[in-house]
Amino acid sequence: MKLDTSNSGSQADDERSASLRQNRTGSATFTDRLRSLDAAPRSSASELAHLRYARKLVVSDALILCCTLGLAAVLHMLSDPYAADLGWLASTPTGYIVASVILGAFWMLLLALGGSRTRRVVGRGVEEYVNIAMTTLQLFGLIAILALLLDLQVSRSHLILALVLGTVGLMCGRMYWRWVAVRRRKRGKDQASVLVVGELDAAREMAETFAKEPEAGYRVDGICTPLGPVPGEEAISVGGRDIPVVGIDEAIVDAVQRTGVSTVAISCHLQQLEIRKLIWDLDPLGVDLVVAPGLIDIADHRLNMRAVGGMAVLEVSKPQYTQANSLAKRIFDLVFSAVALVLAAPLMILAAVGVWLSGPGPIFYTSERVGLNGATFKMFKFRSMRADADRFAGQLIAASGQQSPMFFKVKNDPRVTPFGRILRKYSVDELPQLFNVLRGDMSIVGPRPQVRREVESYDELVSRRLTVKPGLTGLWQVSGRSDLRPEDAVRLDLHYVENWSPIQDLVIMAKTVKTVLSTDGAY
Predict the structure, then answer these.
(1) Per-residue pLDDT averaged across 321-344, rounded?
(2) What is the pLDDT of residues 221-248, one digit of tens each?
(3) What are phi and psi of 513, to 5 degrees?
(4) CB-based contact 176:149 (threshold 8 Å)
(5) Distance CA 401, CA 398 (A)
(6) H or E stretch including 443?
(7) Domain 192-294 has what CATH class?
(8) HSE of 171 in the Cβ direction (CA atoms, 13 Å)?
(9) Whether the Cβ atoms of residue 247 and residue 214 lie closer than 8 Å to each other
(10) Which residues on adjacent β-strands are paired with residue 370?
C-alpha cells in the first residue's frame, strides 16, 4: 500500500505548514523554533557595548586608585615623616606601598561585588556615585573590623586621607567617562538602532523623544504599525530624518531581521503573553527589548518598579510641588539672592547707566506677573525696550501668527533698543529679579513668570504651574530659552513642578551659567 503523494494531498499539508509559520511576531516555523531552543543566545549589541565600557572603567578605576592612594601615602609621609603608627608594617616607603596595594585591591574587589559597573548602575543619575560612596563606607567598615579582630595598628590619618582622595578620584573618573559617552552619542556614535512598534502617532512621539535626547543612545531606524506601510504613510519625518514604516506589528521578528536593528521599543500596549513571546523570539537574535509604559515627564526618583504576582508594576509617587515651597528652599533663595546682589552690584550699576544713556524712559521696567496660587506681583527688569513697548504687544501677537499667547516672544522685536539687545543677550536685564526673590515673589529656580493674558489661556492642567513660585531661571531657560515652542515650554514647566528636587535645582543653576554664556536662544 502506497501513501497518496498527489498535489491535492500535499496542498492541505502546505496550508497547515503555512498556518504554523504565521505568528504574532515573525515568520519562523515550528521546527525552527524547536531548533532555536538548542542555540545559545547571542549577546546584544548594547551588552557588548556595555562590556567594552565596563572594561574601560576597570582600567580607569585601577589607575585612579593607584594615583590617589600613592598621593595619600606621599602626603602622609611628608606631613608626619616620623609616624610609627602602622604597627604591623614598617613606617617606611615600602610599608606605605604595601598598605596602599592591599587597600586598593580590597577597594577594587568591593567595587566589583557592589555592582558599580553593571548596566543597572552605570550612567544612571546619581545612583552610580552613591554606589561608589557606599563602597567606600563598606571598605572603611571592613578595615575597622579587621583591625579590631586582628589587633592591627592602622594609621587612621593615612586611611582617611586615602579614602577621601580615592572616592573623589573615582567619582571624577566616572563623570569623565559619562561625559565622553554623552558627547559621542550626541555626535551620532554608539547609538542603538531601534525598531519602534505601535500606533503611528505613538511611534512618532517615541521617535521624537529619542531624537530630542540623543545622549540616551537610541536612534529609530524603522517602525512597525498595525496597518504597516500605507499610501501616504510609508515614512514619518523626525528631526530631519525620514523613518520608514517597515512592516506590521504582527511580524516584528521579520522586520528585525530585515532592518538589522539591535533594539525593539514597544510604544503600544501588547498583551502580557505577546510581550513574553516576543522576548523569547528576540533572545536568539541578540536583540534588546524596551517597553514604554505610556508615562511622560516623570522623573526617576518618582518611579519604583516592583513585581506583583509575576507582573511588573510601576509605582508613581505623587507630584513634588509641595516641597518646592518648603522653608529650606526659601532660606536658600534668601541667602543666594543676597550674595548674588552684592556680587552683581557693579554690573547692575553699569547696566543702569547704559539704560539711562540709551534713550528716554525709566531705568527699570516693571510688569505685573502672576505668581504662586495666582497672586500678582510687580516684576523688575532693566528696561530693554522702548518706553511705550506694551502699547504694541497686541499688534505683534496678531502679526506673528502665533495661535497661543503663552510664552510670546519674537526675534528681531522692533521695540527692543540696541543696548537692550546686549542686555538680553547675556540675560543682564533679568538681574533686578533678584529683588523679587528677596521679597518672596519669586524663587531662584521655577517656572517662567507670565503675564495675566497668558495665564488666562491656561487649561486646568497648565494652571498647575501656579502651584509653585515662578523662577529667575528654570528648565525653559536651560533648554532653548526663547527658541522653545510654547508647548515645549509648558511641558518643561509642568515637569519641574511635578518632579521638584533640590538636586534638580542645583543642576539647573549650573546649566544656567553655560546657557547665559553661550547666548543661544536669547532675544
Answers:
(1) 88
(2) 999 888 777 777 788 888 788 888 888 8
(3) -60, -45
(4) no
(5) 6
(6) strand 443-445
(7) alpha beta
(8) 17
(9) no
(10) 376, 450
What whole-number distance in Å separates Cα of residue 465 and Cα of residue 461?
A: 8
- The three cell numbers locating residue 132: 561608589
Query: Which region holds residue 443: left if phi is over 0, alpha if psi is between -120 and 50, else beta?
Result: beta
Residues sharing a CB contact under 8 Å with residue 318, sequence separation 6 or more, in sequence order? none
Lowest model confidence (mean pLDDT) among 7-21, 23-37, 427-441: 7-21
Task: Calculate the alpha carbon distances from 310 to 72, 126, 291, 306, 307 in Å.
Answer: 50, 29, 16, 9, 6
Radius of gyration of the chain (CA): 30
Q: How would you label 209-223 residue by residue, b for 16+ Cβ within 10 Å and e otherwise?
A: bbbeebeebbbbbbb
- Cα–Cα distance list, 33 to 21, 43, 192 (Å): 10, 19, 26
C-alpha of 78 from chain center:
43
The C-alpha cell 606605605 sits at 96
Encode pLDDT of 123-147 as tens digits: 777 788 888 989 888 888 888 887 7
Residue 411 is predicted with a pLDDT of 66
- CA dist 147 to 90, 143, 155, Å? 16, 6, 11
Phi, psi for 91 (deg, rounded to 5): -80, 65
Contact status, residue 121 vs residue 127, Cβ threshold 8 Å: yes
Q: Is 391 exposed, middle or buried (0-12, 13-18, 19+ CB in 10 A)?
A: exposed
Instruction: Report phi then psi at 113, rounded to 5.
Output: -65, -30
Residue 315 CA: distances (Å) to CA of 321, 324, 512: 18, 22, 32
Please, what's the b/e burial string for 141-161 (b: 16 or more CB within 10 A of its CB; e: otherwise)?
eebeeebeeeeeebbeebbeb
DSSP three-state, residue 155: coil
SS (H, E, C) 276-299: HHHHHHHHHHCCEEEECCCCCCCC
Report residue 3's pLDDT band, with 50, 70 and 90 as the boundaries: very low
- pTM, full prediction: 0.63
What confidence category does residue 438 fall into, taking pLDDT thresholds of 50, 70 and 90? very high
- The two beta strands, 192-197 and 263-266, are parallel
Question: How many residues are given for the chain?
Answer: 523
pLDDT at position 393, please? 63
Grid cell in block for residue 269: 500596549
Query: E strands within 474-523?
Result: none
Three-state DSSP at 2 gives: coil
Give the angle subtended at the CA of 132 by the CAs of 131 and 136, to the nearest 5°. Answer: 115
Domain boundary assignment for the chain = 45-186, 192-294, 323-518
Q: Is 368 left (phi over 0), alpha (psi -120 to 50) or beta?
A: beta
H-helix or E-strand containing 177? helix 156-186
Residue type, 174: R
Number of neighbours of residue 352 by Cβ within 10 angstroms: 15
